[in-house]
Amino acid sequence: QVQLVESGGGPVQAGGSLTLSCTVIGGSLSKYVMGWFRQAPGQEREFLSRISWSGGMIWMADPVKGRFTASRDNPKNTVSLQMNSLKPDDTAVYYCAAARRMVEEADEYDYWGQGTQVTVSS
CA dihedral in degrees (119, 82, 115, 59; nearest 10)? Predict the structure, then answer.
């Protein structure tokens, strides 16, 4: 059974940085397209990033483009989301997700992490 384990969330002041990690357990990361999403209270889950199997193609959503960077390290079975210039509006639970094929919608992903809270204070 594939599991995704996230880490790296926490409180941070506006303008600060955090790096989230997501480790694949029970499977090989290289088999999956990886996505990052977030969900703020009372809001729908929001797409942030998608990385192809080898990392050769990376998509970033407009609200985070230029501030967030997604990457993957297949030998370490880990993907990361480097978040810079954080704003209070970035406060949310952040999730990683894995899909066996190239997908776009959140409900098309096969596996999800448990989520990690990021809280940005002004």
Answer: 120
DSSP codes joined into one string, the chain:
--EEEEE--EEEETT--EEEEEEEESS-GGG-EEEEEEE-TTS--EEEEEE-TTSS-EEE-TTTBTTEEEEEEGGGTEEEEEE-S--GGG-EEEEEEEESS---SGGG-SEEB--EEEEEE-
Report how far residue 89's alpha carbon sits from residue 31's, in angstroms, rounded to the nearest whole number: 33
Could you list the pLDDT tens digit for every one of the 122 residues in the chain?
899 999 999 999 999 999 999 999 999 999 999 999 999 999 999 999 999 999 899 999 999 999 999 999 999 999 999 999 999 999 999 999 999 999 989 999 999 999 999 999 99
Encode pLDDT of 1-33 as tens digits. Answer: 899 999 999 999 999 999 999 999 999 999 999
What are the phi and psi torsion angles at 73 (to 5°)? -130, 95
